[in-house]
Amino acid sequence: MTPSRTLGSTGPATYPLGLGCMGMSDMYGPPDEREGVATIHAALDAGVTLLDTGDFYGMGANELLIRDALRGRRREDVLLSVKFGAFRDADGGWHGNDGRPEAVANYLAYSLQRLGVDHVDVYRPARLDPNVPIEETVGAVAEEVRKGRVRHIGLSEVSAETLRKAHAVHPIVDLQIEYSLLSRGPEAEILPTAKELGVGVTAYGVLGRGLLSGHWNPNRETTQADFRTHSPRFQGDNLSKNLALVESLRAVAETKGATVAQLAIAWTLSRGENVVPLVGARTRPRLAEALGALDVHLTEADLTEIESAVPSTEVAGTRYPEQMLAHMDSEH
């Protein structure tokens, strides 16, 4: 029997791990489209159902990649989760977010065309637009639900207060937020609020942008196109301190017969039945390793040992540059 979890109390059932497709087209250096398609195929063949993307990943290239991968596949076997609203430029820069109601229909129309589908399963603003009440943005997405072009509404990187406001307008099936052994901030207020409201959590960054992969080479060269070039956790002494934590985690992983990545993913899976980790595997070998996390069973003693190996207070550097964090509702 295929294992499953549910996106919140009102959302669809999904495989316990989702596939985050961003890295196949953007943020982590030059893409390999052929391997991206092959990785999506391997994920679907293994039982994965949830594919997560954004209309601004690779300026639409990621949606086109997913369209190519889904040719010949049964649409009903796939859950497409799409973020919208980020302003970017031809150099890959970021310039805020657009949550205006009139923009919702526009963004969605382009996504449906690029994906080659007639509906999106979960549609969500990528970030809160500070100039538009979340009630108005969610109300516009709810109109697309009524029209049948969206099945469910999600949110991304919002505070507990914003989640409550949105949920009062229309049921929110899941909140997408960065959550891992290296990023435990949501535990204070956001995750308890989601659980109270019956909102699921799709956790991204579960491998800390590669730090918790167990494969990070501290001497590797990154380009300006790689997000990690600008990430505080990958800079100077911060990187050295964080990699030391990874080595502590590796020691625990070896006692469980698991890899560092598998242990980190298994820890996220242990956070609750309402949590679905998104693994950002760009290649088939990394995907296979990630799926192996489902076979790692953790006891309470294991969880204590894991959290002792990677204390949240010892993580060096913020998850995004300070200027980006200042505009993230989830950080307020």
From TrEMBL:
Gene3D superfamilies: NADP-dependent oxidoreductase domain
GO CC annotation, single: cytoplasm
Keyword Oxidoreductase: yes
Keywords of the record: Oxidoreductase
A GO MF label: oxidoreductase activity
Superkingdom, taxonomy of origin: Bacteria
Residues annotated as domain NADP-dependent oxidoreductase: 16-309
A Pfam short name: Aldo_ket_red
Listed InterPro entries: Aldo-Keto_reductase, NAD(P)_OxRdtase_dom_sf, NADP_OxRdtase_dom
tRNA processing recorded as keyword: no
Alphabetized PROSITE patterns for the sequence: PROKAR_LIPOPROTEIN
Protein's recorded name: Aldo/keto reductase
Species whose genome carries this gene: Actinosynnema mirum (strain ATCC 29888 / DSM 43827 / JCM 3225 / NBRC 14064 / NCIMB 13271 / NRRL B-12336 / IMRU 3971 / 101)
